[in-house]
Amino acid sequence: MSKSITLRIFADPGHAWCRFPLRRLSALEIADKISHYSYQNGVNAFLEEDDDLQVLVQALRAQGYDIKFHETSTESKSSKIRSFRSYDYGKKTVDI
């Protein structure tokens, strides 16, 4: 039986990121493969579209997931994601 997942993509005029729970990155055993070009805030990672999103997609496909994407974009301004802390695999604290 095929599993399905919808990944949320947030885009601004210059870039896009996929929101994905930090704990699920660990469960997929890819948390250490995500670069500092991605961001984190609270319990979520925001994976940059060029490389880190591809790491996630490959891991999900290897687990048998059918992947769909849902994109939200800001047409004329920078995303607030750019103000989040850079992704750091060693950082275990949660933002409040």
Plain-language structure description:
- The chain has about 100 residues and is α+β, with helices and mostly antiparallel strands.
- It has a single domain, classed as Translation Initiation Factor Eif1 (2-Layer Sandwich), CATH 3.30.780.
- Helix content is about 20%, strand content about 35%.
- It is built from 2 helices and 6 strands, in the order E-E-H-E-E-H-E-E.
- Strand 3 (about 40) and strand 4 form a beta hairpin.
- The chain is globular, with a radius of gyration of 13 Å.
- The N and C termini lie far apart (about 40 Å).
- The relative contact order is 0.31.
Whole-Å distance between the termini?
A: 38 Å
Order of helices and strands: EEHEEHEE
| Biggest sheet, spatial arrangement of strands | 5-1-2-4-3-6
The largest sheet, given as strand count, sense and whether it forms a barrel, is: 6 strands, mixed
Helix content, binned percent: 10-25%
Number of helices: 2
CATH architecture: 2-Layer Sandwich
Any idea of the CATH class? Answer: Alpha Beta
Q: What is the CATH topology classification name?
A: Translation Initiation Factor Eif1
Overall tally of structural domains: 1
> Please, what is the average pLDDT?
91
Number of strands: 6
Radius of gyration: 13 Å
**How large a portion of the residues is in β-strands, by DSSP E?**
35-45%
Low-confidence blocks of residues: none
Category from helices, strands and their pairing:
alpha+beta
Q: What general outline do the C-alpha atoms trace? A: globular
Give the helix/strand layout.
Blueprint lengths: L2 E9 L4 E6 H6 L11 E3 L2 E5 L3 H11 L2 E9 L11 E2 L10
Parallel strand pairs: 1-5
Antiparallel strand pairs: 1-2, 2-4, 3-4, 3-6
